[in-house]
């Protein structure tokens, strides 16, 4: 039933994707809402619970794919070429967002400091998928798009060690367990670096070469080998995935280019499937279990934590106020936060259920809020938009009623400094059927 549901929702998402690209509709929100409707707590079509094996397995695989493709977006050359603004967002914005969110979780939600810091680490990463209209719109300033894209591509991996360590602290692990945790992270990092290096070096020899048809599968093979070795050696899979992606992007630009579109599509499919499953875990009863302080925390975590953190991070950065405001708002809590929340639930810590409820509520509100406002904000950056025809009619009506406006026959300028259509003075020239005069700048 899960496969049937996913296929049906995927087809619906494909059919409305063009409309979603132009409006406040969001394919990610569609999968989340579909999961909510089909979940056991609503219609009961999908019988899924947080402890169902498919939930953990799908979440693990999807996050591995997401971190691998995220790492491929941010090779060292990319980071060095334009690091100033993303560096501020990651070096200052990420830890400050973590700390402000933790303070809110402690003061508002009443969590102890270890759990509050854990919530801050889970909710610190961002996801550009839920603000795709902003990141992918060429009318938005390039430096803002680059900032959001690099930041969201890197912060999942940077937040991971904090989540793992703070989860161990919240679980009351002793020094021996912390040493084992460090070993797990080190093994994951080692696998993530060595496997791609060996694979790329082999392809550079005269004995091996990938054909055009198989070139996109090179990245898939590297990722699967990293995943398999990570499981076999008990290395940290997620850190291994992120390190492998960065290594491929840095030392294998040819492999990166061949894998890019194919890999992103695979990661997107897995992410959407996991969002459907996540939505199925949310129900009216689930939301009703959250206290009013939890709802207040979730709202403040979105509208206060990141704006404060980035406001401090971008002081004297040269970004315009509009660009800063857009960057502050578009910090959607994405798929990495979903999986990190599930990791907490599986850990068995005393307040794991409460932490998961807070994280899940924040993610749901964030997805709905950010994915429904990205198109609106992106349009605000489009300086070439035509003023609607009704705008000029309204100005003429208002001018005739109030007697305002110019009396010298010249057009009344719009707020953007251009004549408003419909306010041009009458001339003896014939109408231009091609519209070239109206479009001339």
From TrEMBL:
Residues 11-371 form the Cation/H+ exchanger transmembrane domain. This is NhaP-type Na+/H+ or K+/H+ antiporter. It is a multi-pass membrane protein. Pfam families: Na_H_Exchanger. It is found in: Cell membrane. The chain crosses the membrane at residues 30-48, 89-111, 117-136, 157-173, 185-202, 207-229, 235-253, 265-286, 292-314, 326-343, 355-377. Keywords: Antiport, Cell membrane, Ion transport, Membrane, Transmembrane, Transmembrane helix, Transport.
